[in-house]
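Chapter summary example.
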Amino acid sequence: MKIAPSILSADFSRLSEDIKTVKSAEWLHIDVMDGHFVPNLTIGPLVVNAIRPHTNQFFDTHLMIAEPEKYYQEFIAAGSDAITFHIETVRDPKALIDAIHQAQAKAGISLKPKTEVASVEPYLADLDLVLVMSVEPGFGGQTFIENSLEKIERLAKLKLEHGYDYDISVDGGINDETAKRCLCAGATVLVAGSYIFKSKDREKTIKGLRNDR
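The structure predicted for these 213 residues follows.
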């Protein structure tokens, strides 16, 4: 299980310091929002570029934006290791997956809570990551949506049946309890924001999510 603290919940006035407090996590999850696809605005490539020198962690950049094909290259150039876009925002997912790979980054697709796994099944063989949104995208601190577990189980079954090699990531409402349920369903990456960054002992919280006590 890989843990990916979401910097959306970090203190942006001391971002480099906050990142150091979660250094035991394998990944950092970077939420990019444009105020169009989701009702919120966050960061751009300049912030990714600014924090890249402060950690060797894998940068999992989640583009919750319209027209991700216009911007993915800037985020890869800034230091992103993976680009995850929403299936709901593109006409030709395969073309964007290929373009991300050609730019030497890993490619992922994300599903909003009401989007079915069937919409991404044609692309699973080419993906490095499938991100299941277990809350409505746009804001942190929401409650885990229960039917997300069915999606995780379906993705895990397809992965096993076909020998696919993608990570199954879950983002939203993650805590000790939901982490265990996601793990049992087949998740391999847990994205957690407020649960980690609001804890008094962040390293202990990360270990707890990983079930490494």
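To summarize the output: Residues 2-209 form a domain with the TIM Barrel fold (CATH 3.20.20.70).
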